[in-house]
Design brief:
The structure holds two protein chains of two kinds.
Chain A lengths: L2 H15 L14 H13 L2 H35 L2 H4 L1 E6 L16 H6 L4 E10 L7 E2 L13 E5 L1 H6 L2 E6 L4 H6 L3 E5 H6 L10 E4 L2 E12 L8 E5 H8 L9 E6 L4 H12 L7 E4 L4 H41 L1 H9 L4 H38 L7 H28 L2 H5 L2
Helix pairs in contact in A: 2-13, 3-11, 3-13, 3-14, 11-13, 11-14, 13-14
Chain B lengths: L6 E10 L5 E11 L4 E5 L6 H8 L7 E6 L2 E2 L5 H11 E5 L10 H6 L9 H14 L15 H14 L4 E5 L7 H16 L4 E4 L3 H4 L4 E6 L2 E3 L10 E4 H6 L1
Parallel strand pairs in B: 3-8, 3-9, 6-7, 7-8
Antiparallel strand pairs in B: 1-2, 1-4, 2-11, 4-5, 9-10
The complex binds adenosine-5'-triphosphate (ATP) and magnesium ion (MG).
Pfam families (chain B): ABC_tran
Organism (chain B): Streptomyces globisporus
InterPro entries (chain B): AAA+_ATPase, ABC_transporter-like_ATP-bd, ABC_transporter-like_CS, ABC_transpr_LolD-like, MacB-like_ATP-bd, P-loop_NTPase
Chain lengths: 428, 244
């Protein structure tokens, strides 16, 4: 009666003496790889049910990816229009004093030089439409008829304006700082305008008459990338224009066209008014290029929120579906739970198994949903001949959201599963 | 070594808390040594499964001390109880409890998932266990394609594969016809001959007679018919002790 007891006590002491790890009575374990393969097996043993269960998540994640993808795609169309050219353009308007006076006359003489001193500015210049006196017009010869029916515009521009407009020259050259400084009567015209003026080549040193004053045409522009209306004007240096027809005024206010290096535009726009007139910066309104992000946000906000809400609703339905199926599975598999406990599983191992199953189901739904959502984006983009754009973060996040949905949905059933008494479960 | 009993109950009893409290297993002393083949009989509801659950570390006794292989299981943390259960005890049930969507091999291998056997080893050991129970030719069969006797053999293979020191069987032939039952019982006899310690619950007297020792439970009271005491078999109910 006592000997076995003493032996047992000795064994017990030995067990304690060895520390936390008794020889064969090592603790029960459940390796992550086993957890994964058990979860996958659990899903695969009822494929049809698993597929139906994952459907809600598929729809939710699919909608999520499609909405974000379509948003990215449409706004990338806008981004496409919003190219490097617009991103590097700053115009400055002369809005005059706050009492309405001094409109159009506030640019200092050295405006272009002041702006060009700013960091990041490539070219700067003042321009204004010249208002010719009554009776004066643009003609190809001193006594000829006016060119065409309508009045031909004359534009006064600093040399920086022409360069900022990035013209492609067909022939000749642009006027430069020298012509500006010396008020040389030269002109640059667009090729269409040149044809109307009867100018085919610069070899013959052609001249246009503005009023009675001859201007030597020194350049013909094929195209300009900014300020396309320059092509419809005879462009002359600002200094000679001011000499001949006066400074810009209220009716024909001067503006500045500035090109900047990429990324500098916003800062240049910030600094320009102060650089032009430290005493009266409020007289200038610098227009930076629109912020692409702000542009995207205004386009993206209204409809998308509705669709994203719909996606969330789908996800919630998906989560409820997973929760429901997992709960049913737990009740159905009570015997299995009891058996696993006899094989050494702990309550938490049972929990983790069911959690892993629901998480895997959610992740699977997320993956399929991501694929379907991406396909939707591609299909829509192809139909509209857009470039499909889906942000990589969306593609990474979507299956993860599915996984988290599954985890959350599986929480309660998995907890219930761990609470099932093995003795109870085995009685089935 | 062999002097350390596999099962030692010291005043072990279990009362389900209820309400009302159910004294399903009355405090008893019991020693089962290694290699014994113990059969337990008793009417329905007498506490046979309760006894098995205590011996199998599924239920913790509410009284006394239970020593398994000399290890006092009283107050062991859950992780160690589960570890002991997985490694030292094999269970065989009347209703087999096989996973229907897993092959025989996978069902057997499942017994090594929670005990830290390396994955590589599992298939080989499961195969070996299936061969041992005479199912070497049905290794990849699903349980639904197996006969009742074959299913119970798979269950026995699963119980053996972790190399336990104790095999607990609750009505192992309850769902089987006489012929298949005989083959399963012959297998149990084989295991006994190989030195396995067996505790088999049955209410079939012919099954009970195959054991080297038969205990009876009635209304939660464990008794051993007199005259069959062996030197290692020690049994007294707590009631007898107080009566003496
Ligand atoms: N969780 C529990 N709570 C309360 N009473 C219980 C619980 N489990 C079992 N019992 C009771 O304990 C007693 C013994 O049950 P047990 O399952 O051990 O009987 P058994 O001998 O295995 O019967 P059978 O031959 O029908 O399987 C029964 O009266 C039963 O109702
Ligand atoms: Mg029973």
């Amino acid at each position: 009666m006592t000997p076995p007891g003493r032996g047992a006590r000795r064994a017990g002491r030995r067990r304690k003496g060895r520390g936390r790890r008794p020889d064969r009575a090592a603790v029960s374990r459940f390796a992550p790889r086993d957890l994964l393969s058990e979860a996958v097996a659990g899903i695969l043993q009822r494929p049809a049910r698993s597929a139906l269960t994952a459907l809600g998540t598929v729809l939710g994640i699919g909608a999520f990816v499609a909405v974000l993808g379509l948003t990215a795609t449409t706004s990338s169309q806008i981004d496409g229009r919003f190219n490097a050219l617009t991103a590097t353009e700053v115009t400055v308007e002369d809005v005059g004093a706050s009492d309405g006076s001094a409109i159009g006359v506030s640019f200092p003489e050295d405006a272009a030089a002041r702006i060009e001193r700013l960091n990041g500015v490539s070219h700067a210049g003042v321009y204004w439409p010249v208002s010719l006196p009554e009776g004066d017009s643009v003609r190809a010869s001193p006594v000829g008829a006016t060119v065409g029916e309508e009045e031909t515009q004359v534009a006064a521009a600093g040399p920086g304006v022409l360069r900022a407009a990035q013209p492609t020259l067909k022939e000749g050259r642009l006027f430069d700082a020298y012509h500006e400084r010396e008020a040389v009567p030269v002109a640059v015209v667009g090729s269409g305008m040149a044809a109307r003026l009867g100018i085919t080549t610069l070899e013959s040193r052609p001249v246009v008459f503005i009023g009675d004053r001859p201007f030597t045409v020194i350049g013909i522009m094929g195209d300009v990338r900014r300020k396309a209306d320059l092509l419809l004007s005879v462009v002359v240096p600002a200094t000679i224009a001011a000499q001949e027809w006066g400074e810009p005024g209220t009716g024909t206010p001067a503006r500045m066209l500035n090109s900047t290096r990429l990324g500098a535009a916003a800062q240049v726009a910030d600094q320009a008014p102060l650089a032009l007139d430290p005493a009266h910066p409020e007289r200038f309104k610098a227009v930076p290029p629109p912020d692409p992000k702000a542009l995207r946000d205004t386009v993206g906000s209204d409809l998308n929120q509705l669709f994203l809400l719909l996606a969330v609703v789908c996800l919630v339905i998906g989560a409820v579906g997973i929760a429901n199926t997992t709960l049913v599975a737990v009740l159905e598999r009570t015997g299995e739970i009891g058996l696993r406990r006899t094989l050494g599983a702990r309550g938490r191992h049972i929990t983790s198994q069911f959690l892993a199953e629901s998480a895997a189901l959610g992740a699977l739904g997320g993956l399929v949903g991501t694929a379907l959502g991406t396909l939707t984006v591609v299909a829509v983009a192809m139909a509209r001949q857009w470039t499909p754009v889906v942000h990589p973060a969306t593609l990474l996040a979507a299956p993860l959201i599915g996984l988290v949905t599954g985890l959350l949905a599986g929480g309660y059933p998995a907890w219930r599963a761990s609470r099932i008494e093995p003795a109870e479960a085995l009685r089935r | 070594m062999s002097s350390v009993p596999v099962i030692e109950f010291r005043g072990v009893g279990l009362t389900y808390p209820g309400p009302p409290p159910v004294p399903a297993f009355l405090p008893a002393d019991l020693v089962v040594s290694g290699g014994e083949y113990v059969t337990i009989t008793g009417p329905s509801g007498s506490g046979k499964s309760t006894f098995l659950n205590i011996a199998g570390l599924i239920d913790a006794p509410t009284r006394g001390h239970y020593l398994l292989d000399g290890v006092d299981t009283t107050g062991l943390p859950d992780s160690e109880r589960a570890g002991l259960r997985g490694r030292r005890i094999g269970f065989v049930f009347q209703s087999f409890h096989l996973l229907p969507h897993r092959s025989a091999l996978e069902n057997v291998a499942l017994a090594m998932v929670y005990t830290g056997v390396r994955r590589r080893e599992r298939a080989a050991r499961a195969r070996e266990a299936l061969v041992r129970v005479g199912l070497g030719h049905r290794i990849d069969a699903l349980p639904t394609r197996l006969s009742g006797g074959e299913r119970q053999r798979v269950a026995i293979a699963r119980a053996l594969v972790a190399r336990p020191s104790l095999l607990l069987c609750d009505e192992p032939t309850g769902n089987l016809d006489t012929a298949t039952a005989a083959s399963v019982l012959a297998l149990l006899d084989d295991l006994h001959k190989d030195g396995m310690t067996l505790v088999v619950i049955t209410h079939d007297t012919s099954v009970a007679a195959r054991g080297s020792r038969t205990l009876t439970i009635r209304d939660g009271r464990l008794t051993e018919p007199p005259g069959r005491d062996t030197p290692t078999a020690v049994l007294r109910t707590a009631a007898d002790r107080t009566g003496a």
